[in-house]
Amino acid sequence: MSGNTFGRIFRLTTYGESHGPGLGGVVDGCPAGVPLDESVIQRELDLRRPGSASAGLAGTARKEPDTVRLLSGVFEGVTTGTPIGFHITNEDQRSRDYGDLAKLYRPGHADITYDAKYGLRDFRGGGRASGRETVSRVAGGAVALALLAMHDIEVRAYTVEIGGVPADVVDPASAQERLFFSPDPDVVPAWESLVHDVRAEGDTLGGIVQVEATGVPAGLGEPVFDKLDALLAHALMSVGAVKAVEVGAGLEAARLRGSENNDPIIPGGFHTNHAGGILGGISNGQPIVVRATVKPIPSIAQEQITIDTNGRPAPLRVGGRHDICAIPRVVPVLKAMAALVLADTLLLQRRMG
Amino acid sequence: MSGNTFGRIFRLTTYGESHGPGLGGVVDGCPAGVPLDESVIQRELDLRRPGSASAGLAGTARKEPDTVRLLSGVFEGVTTGTPIGFHITNEDQRSRDYGDLAKLYRPGHADITYDAKYGLRDFRGGGRASGRETVSRVAGGAVALALLAMHDIEVRAYTVEIGGVPADVVDPASAQERLFFSPDPDVVPAWESLVHDVRAEGDTLGGIVQVEATGVPAGLGEPVFDKLDALLAHALMSVGAVKAVEVGAGLEAARLRGSENNDPIIPGGFHTNHAGGILGGISNGQPIVVRATVKPIPSIAQEQITIDTNGRPAPLRVGGRHDICAIPRVVPVLKAMAALVLADTLLLQRRMG
Amino acid sequence: MSGNTFGRIFRLTTYGESHGPGLGGVVDGCPAGVPLDESVIQRELDLRRPGSASAGLAGTARKEPDTVRLLSGVFEGVTTGTPIGFHITNEDQRSRDYGDLAKLYRPGHADITYDAKYGLRDFRGGGRASGRETVSRVAGGAVALALLAMHDIEVRAYTVEIGGVPADVVDPASAQERLFFSPDPDVVPAWESLVHDVRAEGDTLGGIVQVEATGVPAGLGEPVFDKLDALLAHALMSVGAVKAVEVGAGLEAARLRGSENNDPIIPGGFHTNHAGGILGGISNGQPIVVRATVKPIPSIAQEQITIDTNGRPAPLRVGGRHDICAIPRVVPVLKAMAALVLADTLLLQRRMG
Amino acid sequence: MSGNTFGRIFRLTTYGESHGPGLGGVVDGCPAGVPLDESVIQRELDLRRPGSASAGLAGTARKEPDTVRLLSGVFEGVTTGTPIGFHITNEDQRSRDYGDLAKLYRPGHADITYDAKYGLRDFRGGGRASGRETVSRVAGGAVALALLAMHDIEVRAYTVEIGGVPADVVDPASAQERLFFSPDPDVVPAWESLVHDVRAEGDTLGGIVQVEATGVPAGLGEPVFDKLDALLAHALMSVGAVKAVEVGAGLEAARLRGSENNDPIIPGGFHTNHAGGILGGISNGQPIVVRATVKPIPSIAQEQITIDTNGRPAPLRVGGRHDICAIPRVVPVLKAMAALVLADTLLLQRRMG
């Protein structure tokens, strides 16, 4: 009930702080027979790792190998149906000296809300508010991806906009190997120079990530509170920095007429996919398409107006090198969350079928 | 697990089909001592009733009194802490003769997905896909609103855009009494003429609804998977026709710089509210502000391209009078869903300090 | 979380007080296609009804027809897969004048614990502590029994001991038609005279009920916390007045040697069934056999030592006609609870192979 | 849903197999500020360790240090409110050569049911069926015990009967230091010689364990499906080898008259405790008293009748040294399970209160 477990049938429970011994989790409900080993999980973890290729100039300083170790649930390269425990050791644990920072509430950060909730700024919230918490999501999501792959379901995530500069979705298949997880080779230089300029201004950037799942059979999702799109919205919005979730046409649907928004049905499929692959909360066999809006990183180099823990005004200036855009780190996390929802919904459907 | 229950501590379970004896539900987990009687619930139900004042020209033909009856959990005008059972009888049960419609998949509707999921078009999905299912949500939400009121938390929902025409949020307090639940008296005529024109074209309209909760104490929400905004996204996206959910600046946050998006912190509060009252998934004491994008109603008067249940092309033309915009019906439902999340989160948080 | 919902996939949520408008509930997760109508539920309700044939001399004064009404989820005699709502109106609502009783804590009753929990003796606890709450369990259990019947699983419950006088399980098949739900025609006269004598003494009797499920396939149950026997123990112990739950050999297993307790395995089955049909928490294909010990009814005619709500000593003497033994009322409830567990476990297991 | 998580607010999720890298789990929902470090958990683990003092002659051959490592959720000797991850490495992993055993179904074991459930004898079930799974329960229970201690709630478990030979509960306080966890110094020699004799016969013994919780405030537990005794029954029955659970007078209540079974209420308490500290599913302030019947260990040295995996008769003779009685290993597990229920119920009550 503290919200560290996600899912109904395929369930991920996570633990770990950024400056503790490590992070990890338990995947319960994964059927036996899914091909899985540490390399399968490591591949996904490497995508979100600070300083991974995709991060590029937007990346962070902290270096973490993020090496996963499987603790149970896998035997001779396949899952056994028992809970899958995994752990990632924190190598770079040195607590930086925050100095006066510790006495200030950083705008856009959870400092002030954790203080309100727990009365203790570092206890409880502290480590869990850190982006490092998402390491466990990516590891758990990797198990979900392996299960989905067995059912010929593929999940992709790529960046469709940074700082207001949109990408064309021309080559999503190779976005994973491209800088910023871009589905569009041509936009990369523009994004790079934007990151360069914004860094010079001591500012940061937001963007939009699209997650697409192909091969999803029609019929997944429950009709009332647990609609497939509702679960996906929950999953994506649970990732820090996400401020909006769209399905299919999303916000644009508010401006379309019914005659424009409806997807004409043709033998074997649909003409368009404004629905994003979901009708009445249930998958319709088209690709599932959802987007998440990622806010700009709140830690900026410019001086900011804030207060200290005693409620007194205190200007804040954060030094050191910073991330400019969270996108490269968030893309694999959003992919993992979507995979968790799809794996869970798939198993629930098989049970109730 | 069929998704007819929502919530963790304050839980709503619903039942009922549009053409069965009636609809209702059970609210479990409501503490004792909350002032409640049928009139409190009826007030909310009347807001969503087909043909209610707010519906105006966009409204539907079906007439339902939607009179609620409390079956348990209330004694002498206050809740007793036991489960609160309620029931709303369907008066207008006559099954319209759908004729050939029954053999066609209506674009934008769940016909085709229910068929895929249940193998039976009317069984299971049928009644639950209907908008009438939301009657139980509004009734359950009314109980949540009563609980929240005891804690000086007020939830409002109003329309901020229809068919691309935005409203200014000048008077949200009286939006509930205004046509289209508009927070802006001046935009109403424009919306009315837009509805008039679009009806003439045999088309329909979408829009955007904003839900605002004031008086929410700082500290509500869990830091990882059950962030307050994640639960709200789940709740709002679970309402049929919703295609996007935004928190605070929402989609706009993708285009703002960190220096623009951060809310400067001042003694006793914040300068702005781009965060929508939530930081790191936890309420910060500012008003909670979320928006839901509602797609245009899929039932249009124009002929549409579709297939029949045998997969053969079959043009569809739906006769009769139709709703032009779902907004007037959806506003009270979105308000109810937000109230359910806040009541549940408030109870989970209580005594944690 | 207030514990008015039971089950994981096949879930029953109940509501209602003994002196309110009525009692009822919602069954969620029942698949489509299960033959069901009000008569199927009524048959089970009639078995537990105060003053039903089986109650005999042990029965109560209160007369309730307990007529069930289906509110949703059933169409043309079969379930549709949507939630099944049902309601039973309280006819005999007149609140008896408890007089001074209201100021005393009755020994063996929940008066004192509800007061401690809710601070209000009647609020919350009041009606839910009443035996009438079990009406909803029997109705929900009837749906489970219908589902199980489709899978050729039969559940029986019968009385194996009253007041220390055991019955021989010679004819469980017709126990349902027999006084006290006795599986043994010969013991009935002994039980009748025992009830007669104990009534004369102003005292009450307890007993033991056995629940047997045949046709349960091997493989149901989860290996760790949700063992099939653990769920059954939870279910049976949740029925008021139950003080012990046994599986198979039960308490006797503590005195047997391993060589005596082990069930020799033979082609196609087992020699004995000390395991009660469950090994390692998973069904083994033999009949599931569990027993529940029911304590004597706490309301006796003799004067008792107790205190009033102010904590002062106050002798208690309850007048009027009383039940002598809860067994006849409890048997159908225990049967229902076992059916709920089996239906839920069966659905969870389905398609897992 | 695979049943590897236990609890509602205070939740334990476990993983691990007897012959994998290790075992562990995650405790979610533990509030911040509970004094905890590895030694606190180790103390409980040492009690159940194969070959621990208490095991005595009944003990096993396998040697496991069972050293626990905390992975998260604890900072400077107190819990932080974040999930508490822990891991115990398997040292003695060498898979014994089962030889022909692998082809036979051992009577009283889960071999045959796992085969029926998973189609694979070792996969899934294998490791989780092993008694080693309970290591994680004891570790999680240790956290619960630490939380309860903060509220002056103490939980004790001791052996009240072995092989039909009962103990007098004269000194439960020091049972933990005594052979067989006996509350009675005088019975130990009798139990020792009984174990000696039964070993000579190649047979095994069962027994009864009592768990007692003192300092439990009145008011814990929910009135309907989640009665405190129902949760305790679920918890204790989920431990392998347990065949019966009793509360207070337990089975004996079936033979008492109401006048004998009722606990007279006196100022400040009760005269007796036949209720076992629970009335109407809610704690009454008296000590909570529950008992679990443990069946004799199914692995005996005598030849047994069974079949092989092809369904053919095949006599089974197990060689090597065996445990004679599971009691010494099970006592700390039952204590842990009771602690988990009480911690969970305590936190739920605080939230709803």
TrEMBL record, chains A, B, C, D:
Reduced FMN (FMNH(2)). Pfam families: Chorismate_synt (PF01264). GO terms for molecular function: chorismate synthase activity. FMN binds at R128, A129, S130, G280, K295, P296, I297, P298, S299, R321. Its cofactor is FMNH2. It comes from the Bacteria. Pathway: Metabolic intermediate biosynthesis; chorismate biosynthesis; chorismate from D-erythrose 4-phosphate and phosphoenolpyruvate: step 7/7. NADP(+) binds at R48. It catalyses: 5-O-(1-carboxyvinyl)-3-phosphoshikimate = chorismate + phosphate. Its EC number is 4.2.3.5. Keywords: Amino-acid biosynthesis, Aromatic amino acid biosynthesis, FAD, Flavoprotein, FMN, Lyase, NADP. SUPFAM superfamilies: Chorismate synthase, AroC. HAMAP family: Chorismate_synth. Belongs to the chorismate synthase family. Homotetramer. This reaction introduces a second double bond into the aromatic ring system. This is Chorismate synthase.
